Amino acid sequence: MTDRRNGMSLREAIRRNARAQQQQQNMDVDVFAPRGNNGASASAGPLAMARAYRVARQSGQLNISSRGLTAFPKEILRLFELVEEDEKSWECVPLVKVDLSYNEIASLPDEIQQLPELTSFKMRHNSLHTLPSGFFELSALTALDLSNNQLAGALPDAFGKLVALRDLGLERNKISSLPEAICQLPYLEVLRVDENALESLPNNFASETQHVDAKLEEIDMRIKSLEAQLDDFAISQAKSHNSIPSISDEIGALTTLTSLKLCQNKLVELPEALFELTALTYLDLSHNQLQGSLSERLGNLVNLKELSLGTNRIQQLPESLGQLSNLEVLRLEENKMEKLPQSIGNLRRLNTLVAHTNSLATLPSAFSSLRCLQMLDLKKNFLEALADQLATLQSLKFLDLRQNKLTGFPQLPERATLDQVFLGFNALSLIDETSILRAKDSITVLELRDNKLSTLPVNMGSPYCFETTLIHLNLSKNHLTSLPSAIGRLAALQLQLLRIRKNQLTSAAVEEFLGTPPGDAVICSSLKELDLRNNLLAEMPTSISALPKLETLLLSFNKLETLDGFLWHKLSKVSVISVSDNKLRSLGQIYLVPMLASLSFENNNLTSVPSMQERRNAQCHVTSWKRR
């Protein structure tokens, strides 16, 4: 190495003047030069590259990613020949790390083997189709990232020469098979091969790795048929988004496996050996074709903290589920379950349960024992009534019971931190005032749309009910003919969004709950969106003009005939107004809304619209006039 560097120093002296002249010619056009026809950006100009090479000689690390390169720079192989006059060749260090990511390089030269001390080589997001034989002479490599390229077919056995590899990234290529030699890499810790065209793993994937002392920390694969043998690795994470129809029983040999992700495959059943992986803390089997009942041996996985079984065809969970005492997250969405096991009540650490889109008709009585549950998503089931299963869930923050068959209002937990409640698309005809008051101190979002409500509790909007918490209230698509006047007071507190579309509210009803100026309406100081579409409004409710923070006003599909006389100029923050599909003959002075940007008034009986001069005089800046 020393002789080589001394030789380069002599060559550098001979070529110094020529190189200096070339650099001077490029001085003014290098960094800010436009992208050329060959795809090379300014950052790949001579000066920029020279700077990168200089840093590499000093540090042993070369980063020329995102340079628009279309070919491997041969200068990398002779960095010492490019030593500049103010550099000392004997102070240069050999390359140990190279990053060529995010370029358009299609091939590597066989001479790359001239970098024998290279330990890290990153070339993700390029256009590599193959690897030269010389590449596999880089036996010092510990980290290799070739993800997001065009590598196709079977990888060569020569990978077995890279005996120092610890991290191998091959994801998002077109690889159809891995060489058995990969199984013989003694220090491999991370293997990523997801999003390829793999049909199997090497047959010796397990048997040839029993001697491995290092711990394989990650396997990231998306393959079509996992029938290979997996063995003595201590895997902390294994990912898969594949089309796997089966798993070998020998997976049970992975006794130190802690994380296994086999989602988006075609698994129809699980080997019993899977339930011998008692070190698992994370198991994702979602988006497969699992059906029927899961094995009672599921209870063996006592260290599980997260279990994902969503988007399968599972009909029943075993009672042994209750043995998973460390479970914190359970995802069961999009299956065919008609009930949950009674033992679910033993999951005292469970904080997230997602079981939407099933066929659940009831919840087990033991459900009330889930005192740590914070998120509960049971939408799209067949629940008709909930007794008191929710009343004791004092940690609950998120509750989604939409699209069930509820006819009775559920008992909400008392003194909970319940933040968001979604009860839309049910058959509720009455709100239990006692229940709603139990969660009065915390709810910010309450959705009751698409039910059969004809009235609301008189005290629902009282200050002592929701105090300063409720921000979003959706009562759309019910049978409401009136709202309690106390609802208007909510807007004085925190209410920002009030949606009451598709009800039977008249103008008088709106005046009643908002108040009539100069009375109670002045306290509606927080409301930003008011949706009154598809109601029975025949005239503009004057109380709307007393909503100082209103930004969006939706009044389409009513029976409005005129907007005359309304104090539009008071709506100082409104930017969106829709009055389409009414019976309007005139828009009145709607152009006086100072911040109006979008106005929709199609499908009316208008004979004229505000003139351009009127709009200019009012300084109206409408950018979207929808008129038909």
Automatic annotation (TrEMBL):
Domain Disease resistance R13L4/SHOC-2-like LRR: start-end pairs: 283-402
Keyword hit for Membrane: no
Gene3D superfamilies: Ribonuclease Inhibitor (3.80.10.10)
Keywords (A to Z) from UniProt: Leucine-rich repeat, Repeat
PROSITE patterns membership: LRR
Organism domain of life: Eukaryota
Entry-linked PANTHER family: LEUCINE-RICH REPEAT-CONTAINING, PTHR45752:SF199
Phylogenetic lineage: Eukaryota, Sar, Stramenopiles, Oomycota, Peronosporomycetes
Protein name (database record): Disease resistance R13L4/SHOC-2-like LRR domain-containing protein
InterPro entries: Leu-rich_rpt (IPR001611), Leu-rich_rpt_typical-subtyp (IPR003591), LRR-SigEffector_domain (IPR050715), LRR_dom_sf (IPR032675), LRR_R13L4/SHOC2-like (IPR055414)
Protein species of origin: Pythium insidiosum (Pythiosis disease agent)
Keyword Nucleus assigned: no
Coiled coil: none
Pfam family, one: LRR_14
